[in-house]
Amino acid sequence: MENFSLIVEGKEDTRFLQDFIFHHYKRKIDRNIFIEVGGKSETLHLSTVKIQTTSENNTTVLLFDADDNDFASTIRTIKSTATKLNLRFDHIFLFPNNGSGGNLESLLKSSVADGNERLFACIDDYAKCRDAINLQNPRVITEKEKLVIYHGSFEESGNAKATERSYLNTSIWNLNSPSLEPLKEFLATFFA
C-alpha cells in the first residue's frame, strides 16, 4: 500500500515509527507521510484541513495514545471528535497495544534491551533521594524524561532527545520485544 498517511500525536511518535517500520519491514518512511497533530484527540481540529485533504486520496491511519482511559473510552472519544470535524480514519491503533490504557512511553519502557529495565529503578531511586532532601520546586520526572535519561545513559546512544533518538541500537532498544507484537501485526497490513 503506497497511498497512506500516518496521523500521530507528535514528533517522538514519528521518529519511533520510522525506525520500527525500517527494522521490521525494511522500508524507509519519509516524514512527509506523517501528520503530527501536536497532542491528543482534542487537538485534531488543529490539523483538520491537512487530514481532510490527505484522506481524499489516501488511506488514513491514526496512531495515538490510549492514555489512562480505558481503550473503549478513548476510541469513542476519537470517533466522536472525527465525526464532529468530518474526518475519516480508515484504521486506528492506540498505544501501547491497541487494547489497554497507556501511551507510547509505556510501550517504549517495555521495549528496552534485556537487562536494561533496571535503569528505571535507578531513576526512581534518584527521584526519591532528591525528594528526601526537600529541594525547593523540584521538577517532576515524567515518563518522557525517564526515557531521555535512560537513552542518554549509554555512550553510543547519540542524541537522547526523542525527536532525534535512534531506536535501532539493539544494546538500548529491543524492537523485537513481545510488547511490540500488536503494533507489528497492525502495521503489517501497510508495510509487509
Helices and strands, with pairings:
Layout (H helix, E strand, L loop, with lengths): L3 E5 L2 H15 L8 E3 L11 H8 L3 E7 L5 H15 L5 E5 L8 H6 L8 H15 L10 H10 L28 H11 L1
Parallel strand pairs: 1-2, 1-3, 3-4
Write up what this structure looks like.
The protein contains seven helices and four strands, in the order βαβαβαβαααα. With 192 residues, it is α/β, with parallel strands linked by helices. It folds into two domains: 4-110 and 175-191, Rossmann fold (3-Layer(aba) Sandwich); 114-174, no CATH class. Strands 2-1-3-4 form a four-stranded parallel sheet, sandwiched between helices. α3 (71-85) links the parallel β3 (59-65) and β4 (91-95). The chain is globular, with a radius of gyration of 18 Å. The N and C termini lie close together (9 Å). The relative contact order is 0.17.
Task: Tally the beta strands.
Answer: 4
Helicity, in percent? 40-55%
Q: The CATH topology of the largest domain, please? A: Rossmann fold
Percent in strands: 5-15%
The figure for the number of domains is 2
Major sheet description: 4 strands, parallel
User: Residue-averaged pLDDT, rounded?
Assistant: 89
- Radius of gyration over alpha carbons? 18 Å
Pairing-aware structural class of the strands and helices? alpha/beta
Any key phrases for this structure?
7 helices; Rossmann fold; 192 residues; 2 domains; four-stranded parallel sheet
Question: What is this structure, in a nutshell?
Answer:
By secondary structure, the protein is of the alpha/beta class. The chain is built from seven helices and four strands, in the order βαβαβαβαααα.
